[in-house]
Design brief:
single chain, 286 residues, alpha/beta, Rossmann fold, 6-stranded parallel beta sheet, 9 helices, 6 strands
Length: 286
Amino acid sequence: MARGTKRWLAAMGLASLLTLGATVPAQAAGGGNNDFGCRPSAAHPNPVVLLHGTFATYYEDLNFLQADLAARGYCTFSLTYGAYPQFPFVGGLKPVAESSLEIKAFVEKVRAATGAAKVDVVGHSEGGLQSLYLAKMQGIQSELGQVVAIAPPTHGANASGLLTLAYTLLGKSTWDTIVKTIGLPIFADELDGGAAVVALNTGPVAQPGIGYTIITSRYDELVTPTETSFVREPGVKNQYVQDFCPFDPVGHIGEAYDLNVWHLVRNALDPAHAAPIKVCAVGSPG
């Protein structure tokens, strides 16, 4: 099944749940996405920047989560990063290091516009990797509050063995050349041994003064093995969705739309008011 179709089905499943009663609060004034006139409240003092995954955009991946956070009074912002000028409809394609510069500039723009001391970052898939990379590599640790990474390929993913097979059949150098030639260098970065993965994992990933939460599903079929998402360092919260909702079958794309994941994200953004999940939703597999 195509990635876009899976994402559409996951969104439709979410819409059905909302229709059945898992409603989102009414939108707070000034809480729309990319409203640079939004001023953070005392309850939610940090603006939230949301980062999409590979082959996605700011308006198609974490857009429903963004709307949920905005409706709860957060100032939310997002961008399509890593897109080529000649094809601006899909992002997350450029090398992590290159896209990270775009994200850094955007974070600093958000902080300056809102007057906030710190910005929180939430990312899904490549966006999760980008959030961790940004916090370590771009020298803005003092500007970041919480980093929440949903299914990031922190230590390199193998997509249920398919990318490892590509390495085995072609060799790393040949694979890297191919993906760079066709304009998809991100596929070299996200594997074990990729430049971004190596840079991120050289020394501690977690940086002082930043709160970290990693969320993934035991049934994620793309960022595998699923343990590769986690950062096993002091102070980092590593969470499987199934630790809270054992029967949620949610897969990689579905994690962006999963109401249980959203709840864990909200807890991570506001740990002082973290609450248990009282009723578990059933997310989209795949």
